[in-house]
Amino acid sequence: MEPITHRPLYVGLVHHPVVNRRGEPVTSAITNLDIHDIARTCKTYGVDAFYVINPAPSQQILLEEILAHWLTGAGAKTNPTRCEAFKIVRYAATIAQAVHEIRAAWGAAPETWATSAKGGEKRISWEAARMRLDSSPHTPLIILFGTGGGLAQEVFNLSDFIVEPIQGKKGYNHLSVRSAVAITLDRLLTRRM
Amino acid sequence: MEPITHRPLYVGLVHHPVVNRRGEPVTSAITNLDIHDIARTCKTYGVDAFYVINPAPSQQILLEEILAHWLTGAGAKTNPTRCEAFKIVRYAATIAQAVHEIRAAWGAAPETWATSAKGGEKRISWEAARMRLDSSPHTPLIILFGTGGGLAQEVFNLSDFIVEPIQGKKGYNHLSVRSAVAITLDRLLTRRM
C-alpha cells in the first residue's frame, strides 16, 4: 500500500474544549506520550504540522520543555529520528489560533474536520473523506482529535465535517487517541488495496 | 468500513528477544501505556488475547499489578471499558510459552507472523496477509510486535511470515509500537472501501 498525495494537512490534538467521562467540559493535561506517538505518526504520513492545543500557560511551558529536549537538547543527539518528528510539532492556545496560523500560511482558511467515536450529524464517510482530501489542492485542512472523553459539542458545531467513527468489531470502540490518530491517517492517506 | 471475520487471532508484544537502537540483543522493560493502548486496540478489533511477553520475573509482577488494578481494583470501578480491554491481556515468559498455550486451546500450533519496519525475506504483502487471515478458520495465528529497536533475528527465523512494513510517505517510518499495532490490525481486519 502506498501513500497518496493530498491537500496541505494539519492535525490538532485538542485539550480544550473537551469533555470528561461524565460529559462535563474540562481542560485536559498534556500526556507526554501523545506528543511522541502522534508526532511520529504525522511525520510518517507527511502531515504538514501537528498542533498541540491547550490554553493553560503551564501546559505551554511543559510542551516547550519537551520540545527543547528533543529538538536541541540531549534527546536530539541520542535519537535523531525522534528529533525529526518533533520538528513538525506546534503549540496553539486555541483551535482558533491554529486556524489563524494555517490561514496566514496558505491564504485560505482551513477546512475543519472533527473526529468522534460516536455517530451523529455532519458525518463524512471514510470514502468521501479520502476523495475530499485529494481535491482542492490549495485549501488546507485540519483534523481535530479530542483528549479526555472527546471533543466538546462546540467543536462539532464549528467543524465542516465529522469523520465517521472507527467501528469496533463487537461494539467496543474505546481506542486511545494515539491509536485513533494512527488509524485515521492510515485510512485517509494510504492507497487502498 | 466494517470488520471482517477471521481465524483465531492473537497479538504478542515481545520484550525479549529484541534489539536496542544499536542492534544489540536486549530485554526491554514493560511500558505501562503499551498495555493500555494495545489491549484497547485488540479488544476493538476482536483479537482473542493479547500476550505480553517478557522473561523477567520483576516484569511479570509489574504486569500482574497493573492487571489487578484494572480487573479487580479501583480501576475496574472508575473505568469499566478499560477493565473490558484488560480482560484479554495474558502474560507469557517467552514466545514459546504463548505458542504452547494457544496450541493447547485450539489443538493446533498457531501460525506465527512477525512484524518489522524494515524490508527483507519472508515478507507477506498486506493483501496476501488479509486473504490468509480469512482462510483456515481453525488454525490460530499470532502476530508478534517488537518493543525497543524491534524483534531480534531469531524471531524472524522462527516466524512463518513477516508482514510487509508500514510505508511512510517520505521514507520516515518510525512509528511507536502502539501505533504500529493499531494500523496493522486495522489494515488486516477492516473491510476495505
Task: Explain how this protein is built.
The structure is a homodimer of 193-residue chains. The first copy, chain A, has helices at 32-44, 57-71, 74-78, 80-86, 95-106, 126-134, 153-158, 177-189; strands at 9-14, 18-19, 25-26, 49-53, 89-92, 111-115, 123-124, 141-146, 161-163. A 7-stranded parallel β-sheet of chain A has the order 5-4-1-8-6-9-7, with helices on both faces. The first copy, chain A, has 8 helices and 9 strands. The first copy, chain A, is globular and about 45 Å long. In chain A, a hairpin with a 5-residue loop joins strand 2 and strand 3. Chain A has one domain: Alpha/beta knot (3-Layer(aba) Sandwich). The model of chain A has no long low-confidence stretch (mean pLDDT 93). In chain A, helix 1 packs across helix 4 (80-86) and helix 1 (32-44) runs parallel beside helix 8. Chain A is of the alpha/beta class. Chain A binds chain B through residues 1-3, 21, 33, 36-37, 40-41, 43-46, 79, 81-82, 84-85, 126-127, 130, 166-170, 172-176, 178-183, 186-187, 189-190, 192-193, and chain B through 1-3, 21, 33, 36-37, 40-41, 43-46, 79, 81-82, 84-85, 126-127, 130, 166-170, 172-176, 178-183, 186-187, 189-190, 192-193.
Short description:
2 copies of one chain form a homodimer. Chain A has helices spanning 32-44, 57-71, 74-78, 80-86, 95-106, 126-134, 153-158, 177-189, and strands at residues 9-14, 18-19, 25-26, 49-53, 89-92, 111-115, 123-124, 141-146, 161-163. Chain A is 41% helix and 18% strand.
Q: Please, what is the average pLDDT of chain A?
A: 93
Provide the β-strand percentage band of chain A.
15-25%
Terminal Cα separation of chain A, in Å? 6 Å
Q: Helix and strand string of chain A, N-terminal first?
A: EEEHEHHHEHEEHEHEH
Specify which chain pair forms the largest interface.
A-B, 43 and 43 residues
Note the total helix count of chain A.
8
**What does the oligomeric state look like here?**
homodimer
CATH topology of chain A: Alpha/beta knot
Low-confidence spans of chain A: pLDDT under 50, at least 5 residues?
A: none
- Could you describe the largest sheet of chain A, including whether it forms a barrel? 7 strands, parallel
Radius of gyration of chain A: 16 Å
The CATH homologous superfamily of chain A is termed SPOUT methyltransferase, trefoil knot domain
Classify the secondary structure makeup of chain A into a structural class.
alpha/beta
Give me the side-by-side strand order of the main sheet of chain A.
Answer: 5-4-1-8-6-9-7
Helix content of chain A: 40-55%
CATH architecture of chain A: 3-Layer(aba) Sandwich
User: What would you call the shape of chain A?
Assistant: globular
